[in-house]
Amino acid sequence: TQLLEQSPQFLSIQEGENLTVYCNSSSVFSSLQWYRQEPGEGPVLLVTVVTGGEVKKLKRLTFQFGDARKDSSLHITAAQPGDTGLYLCAGAYGYSGGGADGLTFGKGTHLIIQP
Amino acid sequence: NAGVTQTPKFRVLKTGQSMTLLCAQDMNHEYMYWYRQDPGMGLRLIHYSVGEGTTAKGEVPDGYNVSRLKKQNFLLGLESAAPSQTSVYFCASSPGLAGAGGELFFGEGSRLTVL
Asked: What are the pLDDT digits (tens) for B78-89?
């Protein structure tokens, strides 16, 4: 089983602060996804990054894929209480022979933004 | 827009009982998956299907069976429930291969407790 390490596991900050969470592996991915999960709901896709060095922005969220496609980061500027949730990264290995056996999830970062 | 619907949302079982979780999607997706989510373990793939009439084992298939008789439905069965199967179960579907970076659409989850 390929491992995706996410850090930190838990993060609690005040509204308005900036933060970065990380997703790291020793494996190379063909693409990497970030999902956000709110309590009592399923994960929802935020972004997919494909190219090494790629940067994508989604309002106050900035996603970066490492040059070697082994790691990724999520930076949130001026965090708001609505950003609270579990952030999951998922790395895809580009398998063409199966369905989901080429996708692995990290354990997630629990983020709490306090008003 | 229903998306992915899971039933039931909550269930309590006694050890040794059987039950079936139903997942229905209305997006005409070929690929469907069952995951379980446990504290500190992240999302782990139980079984998946790459099309009607097909199923395949994921990372943690023991103790579970699945069926995909219709394209829109994916059933997860527990023949003899064990306390270790206490978890939150998520169904997902995707239009493309998850291992190739296809977006996963998740249901809201089914919380199962085995006493």
From this structure: 999 999 999 999
Determine the Cα–Cα distance for residues A34 and A21; give it in Å rounded to an integer.
Answer: 11
Cβ count within 10 A of residue B11 = 17
Question: How, if at all, do strands A85-92 and A71-76 pair?
Answer: unpaired
Closest chain A C-alpha to B102 CA, distance in angstroms: 9
Residue B21 sits at φ, ψ, to 5 deg, of -100, 135
Quickly state the pLDDT bin for A94 (edges 50, 70, 90).
Answer: low
Which residue in the set B92, B98, B105 is minimally distant from A92, CB to CB? B98
How would DSSP label each residue in A9-58?
SEEEEETT--EEEEEE-SS--SEEEEEEE-TTS--EEEEEE-STT-EEEE
Q: Which residue of A1, A44, A103, A107 is the best one to mutate when testing the B interface, meaning the one whose CB has the most B CBs within 10 A?
A: A103
Angle at A21 between CA A19 and CA A26, to 5 degrees: 155
Q: Please give the structure tokens belonging to residue A74.
A: 């999520």
Q: Residue A115 has which token pair? A: 């008003």
**Burial readout B32-68 (b: 16 or more C-beta within 10 A, e: otherwise):** bbbbbbeeeebbbbbbbbbeeeebbebebbeebebeb
What is the C-alpha to C-alpha distance for residues A45 and A88, in angstroms, rounded to an integer?
Answer: 9
Task: Compare all CA atoms of chain B with the CA of A86 and give the residue at the minimum distance.
Answer: B42
Residues 6+ away with beta carbon under 8 Å from A55 = A62, A63, A64, A65
- pLDDT tens per residue across span B26-68: 999 999 999 999 988 889 999 999 999 999 999 899 999 999 9
